[in-house]
Design a protein that fits this description.
4 copies of one chain form a homotetramer. The first copy, chain A, is an all-alpha fold. Chain A has a single domain, classed as Metal-sensitive repressor, helix protomer (Methane Monooxygenase Hydroxylase, Chain G, domain 1, Up-down Bundle). The longest helix of chain A is centred in the middle third of the chain and has 37 residues. The first copy, chain A, is elongated. Chains in contact: A-B, A-D, B-C, C-D. At the C-D interface, helix 1, helix 2 and helix 3 of C face helix 1, helix 2 and helix 3 of D. Chains A, B, C, D: It is found in: Cytoplasm. Chains A, B, C, D: Belongs to the CsoR family. Chains A, B, C, D: This is DNA-binding FrmR family transcriptional regulator.
Protein backbone atom coordinates (compact mmCIF):
# COMPACT_ATOMS: atom_id res chain seq x y z
CA UNK A 1 0.00 0.00 0.00
CA UNK A 2 3.09 2.25 -0.20
CA UNK A 3 2.34 5.26 -2.30
CA UNK A 4 -1.34 4.69 -1.66
CA UNK A 5 -1.43 6.81 1.44
CA UNK A 6 -3.45 9.52 -0.26
CA UNK A 7 -6.24 7.07 -0.98
CA UNK A 8 -5.90 5.01 2.16
CA UNK A 9 -8.90 6.60 3.85
CA UNK A 10 -11.09 6.11 0.79
CA UNK A 11 -10.07 2.43 0.53
CA UNK A 12 -10.70 1.88 4.25
CA UNK A 13 -14.10 3.55 4.02
CA UNK A 14 -15.06 1.24 1.15
CA UNK A 15 -13.87 -1.84 3.00
CA UNK A 16 -15.83 -0.83 6.11
CA UNK A 17 -18.92 -0.50 3.92
CA UNK A 18 -18.30 -4.02 2.55
CA UNK A 19 -17.94 -5.26 6.15
CA UNK A 20 -21.33 -3.69 6.89
CA UNK A 21 -22.81 -5.40 3.83
CA UNK A 22 -21.49 -8.80 4.97
CA UNK A 23 -22.91 -8.23 8.47
CA UNK A 24 -26.22 -7.26 6.84
CA UNK A 25 -26.09 -10.56 4.94
CA UNK A 26 -25.77 -12.44 8.23
CA UNK A 27 -28.85 -10.67 9.59
CA UNK A 28 -30.78 -11.53 6.42
CA UNK A 29 -29.91 -15.21 6.80
CA UNK A 30 -30.74 -15.17 10.53
CA UNK A 31 -34.12 -13.57 9.76
CA UNK A 32 -34.82 -16.21 7.08
CA UNK A 33 -35.10 -13.58 4.38
CA UNK A 34 -35.89 -14.73 0.87
CA UNK A 35 -32.98 -16.49 -0.78
CA UNK A 36 -33.10 -14.41 -3.98
CA UNK A 37 -32.84 -11.19 -1.93
CA UNK A 38 -29.80 -12.60 -0.14
CA UNK A 39 -28.23 -13.44 -3.51
CA UNK A 40 -28.86 -9.89 -4.75
CA UNK A 41 -27.07 -8.50 -1.72
CA UNK A 42 -24.14 -10.89 -2.14
CA UNK A 43 -23.81 -9.69 -5.76
CA UNK A 44 -23.69 -6.10 -4.44
CA UNK A 45 -20.97 -6.92 -1.89
CA UNK A 46 -18.97 -8.77 -4.56
CA UNK A 47 -19.17 -5.79 -6.89
CA UNK A 48 -18.04 -3.49 -4.07
CA UNK A 49 -15.00 -5.71 -3.40
CA UNK A 50 -14.22 -5.76 -7.11
CA UNK A 51 -14.35 -1.97 -7.21
CA UNK A 52 -11.79 -1.84 -4.37
CA UNK A 53 -9.56 -4.23 -6.34
CA UNK A 54 -9.78 -2.19 -9.51
CA UNK A 55 -8.99 1.00 -7.59
CA UNK A 56 -5.97 -0.58 -5.89
CA UNK A 57 -4.72 -2.01 -9.16
CA UNK A 58 -4.99 1.36 -10.88
CA UNK A 59 -2.97 2.96 -8.06
CA UNK A 60 -0.48 0.11 -8.20
CA UNK A 61 0.10 0.62 -11.94
CA UNK A 62 0.36 4.39 -11.48
CA UNK A 63 2.85 4.19 -8.63
CA UNK A 64 4.72 0.92 -8.03
CA UNK A 65 4.79 -0.31 -11.62
CA UNK A 66 5.44 3.17 -13.05
CA UNK A 67 8.35 3.68 -10.63
CA UNK A 68 9.87 0.32 -11.49
CA UNK A 69 9.48 0.94 -15.23
CA UNK A 70 10.99 4.42 -14.99
CA UNK A 71 14.02 2.94 -13.23
CA UNK A 72 14.10 0.03 -15.67
CA UNK A 73 16.12 -3.14 -15.28
CA UNK A 74 15.05 -6.58 -14.13
CA UNK A 75 12.77 -5.27 -11.41
CA UNK A 76 10.60 -3.56 -14.03
CA UNK A 77 9.89 -6.89 -15.74
CA UNK A 78 9.18 -8.54 -12.40
CA UNK A 79 6.72 -5.78 -11.44
CA UNK A 80 4.83 -6.08 -14.72
CA UNK A 81 4.68 -9.87 -14.40
CA UNK A 82 3.41 -9.55 -10.84
CA UNK A 83 0.73 -7.05 -11.92
CA UNK A 84 -0.35 -9.31 -14.80
CA UNK A 85 -0.69 -12.23 -12.41
CA UNK A 86 -2.79 -10.12 -10.04
CA UNK A 87 -5.04 -9.10 -12.96
CA UNK A 88 -5.44 -12.77 -13.94
CA UNK A 89 -6.49 -13.66 -10.36
CA UNK A 90 -8.95 -10.77 -10.39
CA UNK A 91 -10.48 -11.83 -13.72
CA UNK A 92 -10.83 -15.43 -12.56
CA UNK A 93 -12.23 -14.65 -9.09
CA UNK B 1 -34.07 -18.54 3.40
CA UNK B 2 -37.17 -20.67 4.02
CA UNK B 3 -36.33 -24.29 3.61
CA UNK B 4 -32.68 -23.46 4.20
CA UNK B 5 -32.87 -23.88 7.93
CA UNK B 6 -30.77 -27.03 7.83
CA UNK B 7 -27.90 -25.13 6.25
CA UNK B 8 -28.44 -21.84 8.05
CA UNK B 9 -25.60 -22.40 10.49
CA UNK B 10 -23.19 -23.36 7.73
CA UNK B 11 -24.11 -20.26 5.70
CA UNK B 12 -23.75 -18.02 8.75
CA UNK B 13 -20.37 -19.54 9.56
CA UNK B 14 -19.15 -18.85 6.03
CA UNK B 15 -20.42 -15.27 6.12
CA UNK B 16 -18.71 -14.67 9.47
CA UNK B 17 -15.48 -15.93 7.91
CA UNK B 18 -15.92 -13.48 5.02
CA UNK B 19 -16.53 -10.70 7.57
CA UNK B 20 -13.23 -11.67 9.20
CA UNK B 21 -11.49 -11.58 5.81
CA UNK B 22 -12.84 -8.08 5.13
CA UNK B 23 -11.67 -6.90 8.57
CA UNK B 24 -8.29 -8.45 7.83
CA UNK B 25 -8.20 -6.45 4.59
CA UNK B 26 -8.74 -3.23 6.56
CA UNK B 27 -5.80 -4.10 8.81
CA UNK B 28 -3.63 -4.81 5.77
CA UNK B 29 -4.46 -1.39 4.29
CA UNK B 30 -3.91 0.35 7.65
CA UNK B 31 -0.52 -1.37 7.97
CA UNK B 32 0.44 -0.29 4.42
CA UNK B 33 0.87 -3.87 3.31
CA UNK B 34 1.95 -4.49 -0.24
CA UNK B 35 -0.82 -3.78 -2.74
CA UNK B 36 -0.49 -7.11 -4.56
CA UNK B 37 -0.95 -8.98 -1.27
CA UNK B 38 -4.10 -6.95 -0.57
CA UNK B 39 -5.40 -7.84 -4.05
CA UNK B 40 -4.74 -11.53 -3.41
CA UNK B 41 -6.78 -11.37 -0.21
CA UNK B 42 -9.63 -9.52 -1.93
CA UNK B 43 -9.73 -12.28 -4.57
CA UNK B 44 -9.99 -14.84 -1.73
CA UNK B 45 -12.88 -12.96 -0.06
CA UNK B 46 -14.64 -12.61 -3.43
CA UNK B 47 -14.32 -16.34 -4.06
CA UNK B 48 -15.70 -17.06 -0.58
CA UNK B 49 -18.75 -14.84 -1.25
CA UNK B 50 -19.24 -16.57 -4.60
CA UNK B 51 -19.19 -19.96 -2.89
CA UNK B 52 -21.94 -18.77 -0.52
CA UNK B 53 -23.99 -17.63 -3.54
CA UNK B 54 -23.58 -20.92 -5.35
CA UNK B 55 -24.56 -22.85 -2.21
CA UNK B 56 -27.67 -20.70 -1.68
CA UNK B 57 -28.65 -21.00 -5.32
CA UNK B 58 -28.33 -24.78 -5.23
CA UNK B 59 -30.58 -24.89 -2.14
CA UNK B 60 -32.99 -22.49 -3.78
CA UNK B 61 -33.32 -24.71 -6.86
CA UNK B 62 -33.68 -27.83 -4.70
CA UNK B 63 -36.36 -26.34 -2.46
CA UNK B 64 -38.21 -23.21 -3.61
CA UNK B 65 -38.00 -23.82 -7.34
CA UNK B 66 -38.64 -27.55 -6.98
CA UNK B 67 -41.72 -26.90 -4.79
CA UNK B 68 -43.11 -24.36 -7.25
CA UNK B 69 -42.52 -26.70 -10.19
CA UNK B 70 -44.12 -29.65 -8.42
CA UNK B 71 -47.22 -27.53 -7.79
CA UNK B 72 -47.07 -26.16 -11.34
CA UNK B 73 -49.01 -23.19 -12.67
CA UNK B 74 -47.94 -19.62 -13.23
CA UNK B 75 -45.87 -19.45 -10.08
CA UNK B 76 -43.58 -22.17 -11.40
CA UNK B 77 -42.65 -20.06 -14.43
CA UNK B 78 -42.15 -17.01 -12.24
CA UNK B 79 -39.82 -18.93 -9.90
CA UNK B 80 -37.70 -20.20 -12.78
CA UNK B 81 -37.48 -16.72 -14.29
CA UNK B 82 -36.48 -15.28 -10.92
CA UNK B 83 -33.79 -17.95 -10.50
CA UNK B 84 -32.45 -17.29 -14.02
CA UNK B 85 -32.23 -13.58 -13.28
CA UNK B 86 -30.36 -14.29 -10.05
CA UNK B 87 -27.93 -16.52 -11.97
CA UNK B 88 -27.38 -13.74 -14.53
CA UNK B 89 -26.58 -11.25 -11.74
CA UNK B 90 -24.18 -13.77 -10.23
CA UNK B 91 -22.39 -14.37 -13.53
CA UNK B 92 -22.04 -10.65 -14.19
CA UNK B 93 -20.93 -9.66 -10.68
CA UNK C 1 -30.75 -29.22 -26.57
CA UNK C 2 -33.90 -31.37 -26.43
CA UNK C 3 -36.89 -29.17 -25.78
CA UNK C 4 -34.89 -26.20 -27.06
CA UNK C 5 -35.98 -26.66 -30.62
CA UNK C 6 -38.09 -23.51 -30.54
CA UNK C 7 -35.07 -21.43 -29.72
CA UNK C 8 -32.56 -23.37 -31.76
CA UNK C 9 -32.50 -20.85 -34.60
CA UNK C 10 -32.02 -17.95 -32.21
CA UNK C 11 -29.15 -19.75 -30.44
CA UNK C 12 -27.49 -20.62 -33.75
CA UNK C 13 -27.84 -17.04 -34.97
CA UNK C 14 -26.13 -15.77 -31.81
CA UNK C 15 -23.33 -18.31 -32.12
CA UNK C 16 -22.75 -17.36 -35.76
CA UNK C 17 -22.48 -13.75 -34.66
CA UNK C 18 -19.88 -14.75 -32.05
CA UNK C 19 -17.99 -16.66 -34.77
CA UNK C 20 -17.99 -13.45 -36.82
CA UNK C 21 -16.69 -11.50 -33.84
CA UNK C 22 -13.84 -13.98 -33.36
CA UNK C 23 -12.94 -13.77 -37.06
CA UNK C 24 -13.04 -9.98 -36.76
CA UNK C 25 -10.59 -10.29 -33.86
CA UNK C 26 -8.18 -12.23 -36.07
CA UNK C 27 -8.33 -9.47 -38.69
CA UNK C 28 -7.67 -6.85 -36.01
CA UNK C 29 -4.58 -8.73 -34.85
CA UNK C 30 -3.38 -9.29 -38.43
CA UNK C 31 -3.80 -5.57 -39.14
CA UNK C 32 -1.83 -4.68 -35.98
CA UNK C 33 -4.77 -2.80 -34.53
CA UNK C 34 -4.32 -1.16 -31.17
CA UNK C 35 -4.20 -3.67 -28.32
CA UNK C 36 -6.81 -1.87 -26.20
CA UNK C 37 -9.29 -1.98 -29.11
CA UNK C 38 -8.68 -5.72 -29.48
CA UNK C 39 -9.34 -6.16 -25.73
CA UNK C 40 -12.61 -4.22 -26.02
CA UNK C 41 -13.75 -6.54 -28.82
CA UNK C 42 -12.76 -9.65 -26.85
CA UNK C 43 -14.86 -8.37 -23.94
CA UNK C 44 -17.81 -7.98 -26.34
CA UNK C 45 -17.42 -11.54 -27.68
CA UNK C 46 -17.14 -12.89 -24.12
CA UNK C 47 -20.33 -11.11 -23.11
CA UNK C 48 -22.10 -12.51 -26.19
CA UNK C 49 -21.04 -16.06 -25.26
CA UNK C 50 -22.20 -15.46 -21.70
CA UNK C 51 -25.59 -14.32 -22.96
CA UNK C 52 -25.91 -17.58 -24.93
CA UNK C 53 -25.06 -19.53 -21.75
CA UNK C 54 -27.61 -17.68 -19.66
CA UNK C 55 -30.29 -18.22 -22.32
CA UNK C 56 -29.52 -21.95 -22.55
CA UNK C 57 -29.50 -22.31 -18.78
CA UNK C 58 -32.86 -20.57 -18.47
CA UNK C 59 -34.31 -22.95 -21.08
CA UNK C 60 -32.69 -25.90 -19.33
CA UNK C 61 -34.29 -24.97 -16.00
CA UNK C 62 -37.66 -24.37 -17.65
CA UNK C 63 -37.68 -27.66 -19.55
CA UNK C 64 -35.26 -30.42 -18.48
CA UNK C 65 -35.07 -29.53 -14.79
CA UNK C 66 -38.77 -28.69 -14.56
CA UNK C 67 -39.70 -32.03 -16.19
CA UNK C 68 -37.44 -33.98 -13.87
CA UNK C 69 -38.79 -32.15 -10.81
CA UNK C 70 -42.40 -32.67 -11.85
CA UNK C 71 -41.73 -36.40 -12.17
CA UNK C 72 -39.76 -36.38 -8.90
CA UNK C 73 -37.53 -39.17 -7.68
CA UNK C 74 -33.77 -39.53 -7.79
CA UNK C 75 -33.43 -38.09 -11.24
CA UNK C 76 -34.85 -34.76 -10.01
CA UNK C 77 -32.02 -34.39 -7.49
CA UNK C 78 -29.45 -35.38 -10.11
CA UNK C 79 -30.80 -32.77 -12.56
CA UNK C 80 -30.66 -30.01 -9.95
CA UNK C 81 -27.12 -30.99 -8.97
CA UNK C 82 -26.06 -31.00 -12.60
CA UNK C 83 -27.62 -27.56 -13.17
CA UNK C 84 -25.91 -26.18 -10.04
CA UNK C 85 -22.56 -27.48 -11.26
CA UNK C 86 -23.12 -25.87 -14.67
CA UNK C 87 -23.96 -22.56 -12.95
CA UNK C 88 -20.77 -22.82 -10.90
CA UNK C 89 -18.69 -23.36 -14.06
CA UNK C 90 -20.41 -20.39 -15.64
CA UNK C 91 -19.74 -18.12 -12.66
CA UNK C 92 -16.09 -19.15 -12.53
CA UNK C 93 -15.41 -18.91 -16.27
CA UNK D 1 -0.93 -4.69 -31.63
CA UNK D 2 2.22 -2.64 -32.25
CA UNK D 3 5.14 -4.17 -30.44
CA UNK D 4 3.24 -7.45 -30.32
CA UNK D 5 4.57 -8.71 -33.58
CA UNK D 6 6.62 -11.40 -31.88
CA UNK D 7 3.49 -12.93 -30.39
CA UNK D 8 1.17 -12.22 -33.28
CA UNK D 9 1.26 -15.78 -34.59
CA UNK D 10 0.57 -17.23 -31.16
CA UNK D 11 -2.40 -14.87 -30.63
CA UNK D 12 -3.78 -15.68 -34.09
CA UNK D 13 -3.42 -19.41 -33.43
CA UNK D 14 -5.36 -19.08 -30.19
CA UNK D 15 -8.11 -17.04 -31.85
CA UNK D 16 -8.42 -19.59 -34.66
CA UNK D 17 -8.83 -22.28 -32.00
CA UNK D 18 -11.62 -20.21 -30.36
CA UNK D 19 -13.26 -19.84 -33.77
CA UNK D 20 -13.16 -23.64 -34.10
CA UNK D 21 -14.71 -23.99 -30.63
CA UNK D 22 -17.55 -21.61 -31.58
CA UNK D 23 -18.17 -23.56 -34.80
CA UNK D 24 -18.18 -26.76 -32.75
CA UNK D 25 -20.82 -25.17 -30.51
CA UNK D 26 -23.03 -24.53 -33.55
CA UNK D 27 -22.74 -28.19 -34.55
CA UNK D 28 -23.65 -29.26 -31.00
CA UNK D 29 -26.79 -27.10 -31.09
CA UNK D 30 -27.71 -28.32 -34.58
CA UNK D 31 -27.29 -31.94 -33.42
CA UNK D 32 -29.51 -31.26 -30.36
CA UNK D 33 -26.72 -32.19 -28.00
CA UNK D 34 -27.43 -32.07 -24.30
CA UNK D 35 -27.70 -28.53 -22.98
CA UNK D 36 -25.30 -29.05 -20.09
CA UNK D 37 -22.62 -30.29 -22.51
CA UNK D 38 -23.13 -27.18 -24.64
CA UNK D 39 -22.73 -25.02 -21.52
CA UNK D 40 -19.49 -26.81 -20.63
CA UNK D 41 -18.10 -26.05 -24.09
CA UNK D 42 -19.17 -22.40 -23.90
CA UNK D 43 -17.32 -22.13 -20.58
CA UNK D 44 -14.22 -23.55 -22.30
CA UNK D 45 -14.45 -21.04 -25.18
CA UNK D 46 -14.96 -18.18 -22.70
CA UNK D 47 -11.87 -19.22 -20.75
CA UNK D 48 -9.87 -19.40 -23.99
CA UNK D 49 -10.92 -15.85 -24.92
CA UNK D 50 -10.04 -14.68 -21.42
CA UNK D 51 -6.59 -16.22 -21.76
CA UNK D 52 -6.07 -14.27 -25.00
CA UNK D 53 -7.11 -11.08 -23.18
CA UNK D 54 -4.75 -11.68 -20.29
CA UNK D 55 -1.88 -12.39 -22.69
CA UNK D 56 -2.55 -9.23 -24.70
CA UNK D 57 -2.84 -7.14 -21.56
CA UNK D 58 0.47 -8.47 -20.24
CA UNK D 59 2.15 -7.57 -23.54
CA UNK D 60 0.45 -4.18 -23.51
CA UNK D 61 1.79 -3.39 -20.04
CA UNK D 62 5.27 -4.63 -20.98
CA UNK D 63 5.46 -2.63 -24.20
CA UNK D 64 3.02 0.25 -24.73
CA UNK D 65 2.57 1.22 -21.08
CA UNK D 66 6.25 0.67 -20.26
CA UNK D 67 7.33 2.84 -23.23
CA UNK D 68 4.93 5.62 -22.24
CA UNK D 69 6.08 5.51 -18.62
CA UNK D 70 9.76 5.56 -19.58
CA UNK D 71 9.13 8.67 -21.68
CA UNK D 72 6.95 10.15 -18.92
CA UNK D 73 4.65 13.13 -19.28
CA UNK D 74 0.91 13.30 -19.72
CA UNK D 75 0.80 10.39 -22.13
CA UNK D 76 2.09 8.08 -19.39
CA UNK D 77 -0.91 8.88 -17.17
CA UNK D 78 -3.28 8.45 -20.10
CA UNK D 79 -1.79 5.04 -20.94
CA UNK D 80 -2.15 3.82 -17.36
CA UNK D 81 -5.74 5.08 -17.17
CA UNK D 82 -6.55 3.36 -20.46
CA UNK D 83 -5.02 0.09 -19.23
CA UNK D 84 -6.97 0.31 -15.95
CA UNK D 85 -10.19 0.82 -17.88
CA UNK D 86 -9.44 -2.19 -20.08
CA UNK D 87 -8.78 -4.28 -16.95
CA UNK D 88 -12.12 -3.15 -15.49
CA UNK D 89 -13.95 -4.19 -18.68
CA UNK D 90 -12.16 -7.53 -18.56
CA UNK D 91 -13.10 -8.14 -14.91
CA UNK D 92 -16.73 -7.24 -15.55
CA UNK D 93 -17.14 -9.20 -18.77
Amino acid sequence: MRGYTSDKDAVLKRLRRVEGQVRGLQRMVEDDEYCIDVLTQIAAATKALQAVSLGLLDEHLKHCVADALTRGGENADAKVREASEAIARLVRS
